[in-house]
User: Fold this.
Amino acid sequence: MLASVRARLISSHLAKATCLRSHSGTSFALSSRASALYHKPARSDAFKKLGAEDMAYFKKVLPAETILATAAAGGTSDAVELEGFNADWLNKYRGNSQVVLRPKTTQQVAEIMRYCNSQRIAVVPQGGNTGLVGGSVPVYDEVILSLRNMNKVRGYDEVSGILVCDAGCVLEELDGYVAEKGHMMPLDLGAKGSCHIGGNVATNAGGIRLLRYGSLHGSVLGLEVVLPDGTVLDNLSTLRKDNTGYDLKQLFIGSEGTLGIITGVSVVTPRRPAAVNVAVLGVSSYKAVQKAFALARQRCGEILSAYEFWDANCMGAVLEHQDLRNPLSSDYPFYVLVETSGSNKDHDDEKLGSLLEELMEQGVVEDGALAMDDSQIVRMWTMREGIPESLSKTGATYKYDVSIPIPVLYDIVGDITQRLEKEGLYTPGDASSRPVKIVCGYGHIGDGNLHLNVVAEKFEDRVTGIFEPYVYEWVASHRGSISAEHGVGLMKRDYLQYSKSPAMVAYMKRIKNLFDPNTILNPYKVL
Assistant:
């Protein structure tokens, strides 16, 4: 069955999925773009400015080579050395920390926090610094506590698939580690080569595997957390069942480093599938994207592992900035990536083949390409995962990560396009004559998660004012969430009321005050 569908879909052009093309697209250096325009709360007078006595204490706790400190803080590091810690990867959010501490043990983290709490020194915990909402960089001169040196696997049970590791382990490296034992990490992100598992948990990162394996609220079995006062909360359980009172670890999953610093993680890893199929489909409308998803769930329910979509503007950016060609014979308004994963190749091939045949016969799908080997699977996934990088190479990118009911999920892209056109800021198809170059959308249909992106020449108020707070008002009017997986951070702090009621915000503040009464941990974020 699958063989015949392969022939029908891609006999003449699947080979193009393996073709590479060079390009001479314009490259934008991060430092050349204008800094972000965003609301920056005033620095709290309650926080102490670092003195010589503080640096002396840090040097007692940590080896000299694990401390970066500029001359302003009594150190010898060049400010350039701290640049990658002070700014996010989009160069949108930037702080002015003079000190970066890089502990190697939980005890060192505890001693640092105990001292900082007693002295009212503000601290920003930082993992791979791949966040998009300003949650992992300082706002002012907070001390940066980087978990990069805490990168050891503490244990792995090959029978249960339970992994225990330091928070600073890189996600992709963990996936490679458990792959050798026939397992995989339950989440996969475009930033997997840089992001840390501790940061993933702290932001409750979603990604492309959520459709199949659920969120980290289910996959994480236990956490080791250092509280703002230096208390070590050892809840690093490896039990699948533990019904003894409140499940405190859930408070830290998605807390964005405002309640405690995650130093250790226990997570269950699913079996790595023996058979993986990937197809890229071209469809003519967002309605067809939805119909194809409904059929995919119906025909491939137990093996469906990913269902991603992106629009023509996203595809244009990817083809310009990645060494790829469109695997389809024509351009389409929307593209869909379907992935199945299972243990029986023949069974999975038959199921996917039947789905693709039905989609073609019903006219839901206009064209499609099916990956024939692992290299083509990688190329097809690059079309989807390469979108953020491609857009950032095009210009200053405003990113909105929202949850919206699936039937109206893409409508907001059209609404924002019209608003920008009306103000004379954007002309679709013309990336040179207006301040805005691209308006596009992509995301995880199965999760109801849209990534709305607006690419402009630079970050500026006249552009930002068109869709802030309009985007959040639009999402709230459809009972959606202003943050699906990126978190709140600094970017959405002032808009939390669009997703949380006054009562919920009040109780969040009470929880924050309970764990961090001096508010030293990741201040100015979330609340």
Observations:
- The CA atoms of residues 90 and 392 lie 7 Å apart.
